[in-house]
Design a protein that fits this description.
The chain contains nine helices and eight strands. It has 274 residues and is α/β, with parallel strands linked by helices.
Length: 274
């Protein structure tokens, strides 16, 4: 999660190092056929949610994933999902919907919301083979004190429905031992963790995986030396995780500047391919 517009004032490349941590929940054997799903959006200051590209056919020829922000605002109708599905020009493409805000942001998240969750999940399953990992973004009001309710909720979700959880309150990361126990519990539930790489919130770059799927949200300006360095760091990190058995990675770029956009996209696609 990122708040406001991005600024690198006073920051250097050394401020964006990625911590090297052991990954006990990766299989340990090299994965020779990992899957990389790459998506892109322009970060706008007053955007309520990530809107769809003007031309999904053109977008899907350049990227193979879309972080579906419109599902945060409403539980999409079958008709809207059919249109989205048909708008994609390629077979191997994934929509990654954000959980509806009535589940994640209105009131405490707990098992009583399972009826609403069933409606959301059943509708998202209409994406069939184009459904990727769904993003459960928790509000800042959700703190470690709410962890038991969160775990009960996650445990009650269908096991075959892929979910990655994004913690936006930095208290989740303040105690490394406590967060390690949370990662362990997420592993037991087979639910993923979002790594949010943003200049202003480095605590969220926790670099811990709870299963064999990585879900990364990268926020940056775009075509500048610091962001090029950051992408090269991620290239090294993903290569390391592939050697440890990472099966798939969702990597979503949220870029502020439109200047040099195509050059930056080409650079990222070249760096992150395997």
């Amino acid at each position: 999660m990122h708040k406001g517009m991005i600024s690198y004032d006073g920051l250097t490349e050394s401020d964006f190092s990625l911590p090297e941590l052991p990954q006990p929940y990766l299989p340990g054997n090299r994965n020779r056929n990992p899957l990389l799903y790459l998506g892109f959006s322009v970060l706008e200051e007053k955007a309520a949610a990530i809107t769809l590209p003007v031309n999904m056919q053109a977008y899907s020829k350049q990227f193979n994933a879309w972080e579906l922000g419109t599902s945060f605002e409403e539980i999409l109708s079958e008709e809207k999902i059919r249109k989205l599905y048909k708008s994609v020009a390629v077979t191997e493409f994934k929509f990654c919907p954000l959980f509806y805000k009535g589940i994640s942001h209105l009131g405490k998240i707990d098992s009583p919301k399972l009826g609403l969750s069933s409606d959301f999940i059943n509708r998202m399953k209409s994406f069939t083979d184009k459904l990727g990992c769904s993003l459960l973004q928790l509000p800042e009001s959700c703190t470690p004190e709410n962890k038991d309710g969160l775990f009960r909720y996650l445990q009650a979700l269908p096991g075959q429905f892929d979910v990655a959880v994004e913690f936006t309150n930095m208290d989740w990361f303040n105690n490394p031992d406590q967060f390690g126990l949370i990662v362990e519990k997420m592993h037991q539930l087979n639910k993923g963790l979002v790594i949010s790489d943003s200049p202003g919130r480095r605590e969220a770059v926790h670099m811990q995986l709870s299963n064999a799927t990585a879900f990364i949200r990268f926020y940056g300006e775009g075509w500048n030396e610091i962001d090029l360095h950051r992408i090269s760091q991620w290239k090294k990190q993903l290569q390391s995780w592939y050697l440890q058995g990472l099966e798939k990675c969702y990597f979503f770029l949220h870029i502020q500047n439109k200047e040099g956009q195509e050059d930056f996209i080409n650079y990222v696609q070249e760096e992150l391919k395997f």
